[in-house]
UniProtKB/TrEMBL annotation:
First and last residue of the signal peptide: none
Organism the protein comes from: Aliisedimentitalea scapharcae
Gene that this sequence comes from: eda
Protein EC: 4.1.2.14
Annotated SUPFAM superfamilies: Aldolase
This protein's name: 2-dehydro-3-deoxy-phosphogluconate aldolase
Family: Belongs to the KHG/KDPG aldolase family.
Single Gene Ontology MF annotation: (R,S)-4-hydroxy-2-oxoglutarate aldolase activity
InterPro entries: Aldlse_KDPG_KHG (IPR000887), Aldolase_TIM (IPR013785), KDPG/KHG_AS_1 (IPR031337), KDPG/KHG_AS_2 (IPR031338)
Swiss-Prot/TrEMBL keywords: Carbohydrate metabolism, Lyase, Schiff base
Reactions mediated catalytically: 2-dehydro-3-deoxy-6-phospho-D-gluconate = D-glyceraldehyde 3-phosphate + pyruvate
CDD domains from the UniProt entry: KDPG_aldolase
Lineage: superkingdom: Bacteria
Pathways involved: Carbohydrate acid metabolism; 2-dehydro-3-deoxy-D-gluconate degradation; D-glyceraldehyde 3-phosphate and pyruvate from 2-dehydro-3-deoxy-D-gluconate: step 2/2
Record's subunit section: Homotrimer.
Length: 217
């Protein structure tokens, strides 16, 4: 079975809608994988993006995939080999900084729902033409931030986004208030110092605070 782009977008949109923030995780120590996932899920952030930037990433995905209530995806998918490795490790969705035909095809053939990256209207339109209408806006802040994403949304209202890159508690709401934003990706909820210290309750608190960002103030 080959996953269609429209089905992939429907699946990733469902995952993105689980919480206003998707933690973007860089894991160096495999022993932190399970308690980190448990803390984030307990704090109300069940969709987790583990970036393939460290040697421990694939093993971390395999461990986190066993945490009840979690939905673990692989980020920084760049090549078809990344896709196959992520799928084998247990990732239930993928995230990419951009998109190539080879990467899209690999995800479709692997039945791995992909959140492909786009930073311009042309990139978004190209993905929409292929059937993808749930995209990652990356890098968000350096691509013009919330004002740029609002402007892109005016002529392309059928596309929804998960902005990532430079998102913080200070600016997250400016993105989440946009009608074309489902959620945002952020790394602050898994602060490196708290992971190193094994401060899982502190991370759970950060996650709980982040889970409330989508509510009206």
């Amino acid at each position: 079975m080959t996953l269609t782009p429209s089905d992939a977008s429907q699946l990733t949109r469902g995952i993105c809608a689980l919480a206003p923030i998707v933690p973007v995780l860089v894991i160096d120590d495999i022993t932190s994988a399970r308690p980190l996932a448990e803390a984030l899920v307990a704090g109300g952030l069940p969709a987790l993006e583990v970036t393939l930037r460290t040697p421990a990433a694939l093993d971390a995905i395999a461990i986190m995939a066993q945490v009840p209530g979690g939905h673990v995806g692989a980020g920084t998918l760049v090549t078809p080999e990344d896709v196959r490795a992520a799928k084998q490790a247990g990732a239930t969705f993928g995230v990419s900084p951009g998109a190539t035909d080879e990467l899209l095809k690999a995800c479709e053939e692997a039945d791995l729902p992909l959140l492909p990256g786009a930073a311009t209207a042309s990139e978004a339109m190209r993905l929409l033409a292929r059937g993808y209408d749930m995209l990652k806006f990356f890098p968000a802040e350096t691509s013009g931030g919330a004002p740029a994403l609002k402007a892109i949304g005016a002529p392309l209202p059928q596309i929804t986004f998960c902005p990532t890159g430079g998102i913080s508690p200070a600016n997250a709401k400016s993105y989440l208030d946009l009608p074309n934003v489902i959620c945002a990706g952020g790394s602050w909820v898994a602060a490196k110092d708290k992971i190193a210290a094994g401060d899982w309750s502190g991370i759970e608190t950060l996650a709980r605070d982040a889970s409330k960002l989508g509510t009206s103030s």
